[in-house]
Amino acid sequence: MLNILSRPPMYDQEAVQPMRDELIAVGFTELLTPNDVEKILNVNDDKIVLVMINSVCGCAAGSARPGVSLALQNEIIPDKLYTVFAGQERDAVDKVREYIKGFPPSSPSIALFKNGELLYFMRRMDIEGFTAEHISNNLINVFNELCSAKGPSITPEQFAQVMHAKACGSKIPLFKG
Predict the structure, then answer these.
(1) Would you name the residues annotated as active-site residues?
(2) Residue 176 in domain
(3) How many Cα atoms occupy the beta-carbon half-sphere of 162 within 13 Å?
(4) What's the first-to-final CA gap in the chain, in angstroms?
(5) How many structural domains are present in the chain?
């Protein structure tokens, strides 16, 4: 969904929609503005919040999105699932990155927060070159250690129907405003 009040997106909205839908299908809610980010991260409710910085790059398509989706089939998962899209809702992404202290900007990436504090961060360098199963196993270990919400995020039957977007960023048309 295009937020016309912020900087324009870098990529064509229709071209990236399947990359958004892939995460929405497994239970994520999109954060489109800095205010949306503040509302979910600037709270003290002791809930574990997962925020994935989505991306058009190949490692997002081949590893990150499928890996996090598979990890959410675990018996224990984060309490809340959110996503922002690098290069699309750029101001919202910048706001998430303000909460990720001590790390340079990285997308795709996966962060876990509690009461606005970063607990865990999986950077692009922890994703690129690894399989979805490897990403999933790493996240499951983190979920089992830090989380307590009952999983999976969707039923196995629903998960079997999720379509994984496999487009590479170099093939995504630029936004023409």
Answers:
(1) 57, 59
(2) no
(3) 29
(4) 14
(5) 1
CATH number for 100? 3.40.30.10
Give CA–CA dist 133/32, Å, rounded.
29
Count of positions (residues) in the chain = 177
pTM check: above 0.85: yes
DSSP string, 108-120: SEEEEEETTEEEE
CB 91 within 8 A of CB 21: no
Whether 2 is in a domain gets the answer no
In tens, the pLDDT along 34-76 reads 999 999 999 999 999 999 999 988 877 789 999 999 999 999 9
> Is 78 buried (19+), middle (13-18) or exposed (0-12) by CB count in 10 A?
buried
Neighbour tally for 52: CB within 10 Å:
24
For residue 168, the model assigns a pLDDT of: 53
Q: What is the pLDDT of residues 106-151, one digit of tens each?
A: 999 999 999 999 999 999 999 999 999 999 999 999 999 999 999 9
H helix or E strand, kind and range, residue 80 = strand 80-85
Domain membership of residue 6 (yes or no) is no
